Amino acid sequence: MSIYERFADLWEKISAKAKELFSRLKDSKRGLYLCAGLGLCAMLMILLGDGGKEEVSEVTDSELSEEALSEEDFIRRTEDELEGILCAIDGVGDTKVMVTAKGSREYVYAENESERKEERDHVILKNGSKEEALVKTVNAPKITGVVVVCEGGGSDRVKEEVVRAVTAALGIPSGSVHVSKMK
To answer: pLDDT per residue over 117-136, tens digit each?
Structure first.
């Protein structure tokens, strides 16, 4: 089983446990506020903690291709996390989220320093007979917009809370977030 498959399996288990916990805490206002606060803090730490960049130490191209999430997986994971957080906000109710992103994962390779600026050589790691470039940083796709459809979307108070939560969690402007009432 690859690392990605193990991660996906673990993520499904964690998501199921979180949904179960949220459903038990829905009846308690204190529990809802606690979950919403903790969830927003966690998302802020994950998404904004390093400016949207993931530091990768001594990882090669072949390891990245096995472990890296595709753009679709990144968007799906972000949508799932937002749905979990938003449905915990008082008055929001059942929620559907759609995230749009621009670009894809971008790999920034480590370079050797040289006296002549026009020359750029990548740092190459040798592993037996294999040679691979050293990846310095992986930049995630840029989130450009979010649509939230929720049961409480007809309330101005709920709309404002949802927009605040999404903009805080993802670091996007409020004009990039739309909230509507669910049928």
So the answer is: 666 676 677 777 777 777 77
Taking the C-alpha atoms of residue 59 and residue 138, their distance in angstroms, rounded to an integer, is 10
- Fold annotation for 3-53+69-105+140-181: GMP Synthetase; Chain A, domain 3 (3.30.300)
Separation of alpha carbons 178 and 183, rounded Å: 16
Strand-pair partners of 131: 126
For residue 148, is pLDDT > 90? yes
Distances (CA, A) of 143 to 38, 71, 87, 102, 170: 22, 11, 21, 6, 8
Residue 143 in tokens = 């989130």
pLDDT (tens digit per residue) in 164-175:
999 999 999 999
Comparing CA positions, the residue from 122, 144, 117 lying closest to residue 133 is 122
Q: What percent of the chain has pLDDT over 90?
A: 32
Q: Where are the domains of the chain?
A: 3-53+69-105+140-181
Rounded-to-integer distance, Cα 7 and Cα 12, Å: 9
At 45, list the tokens: 């730490």
Tokens of 88: 């915990």
- In angstroms, the CA 106 to CA 117 distance is 23
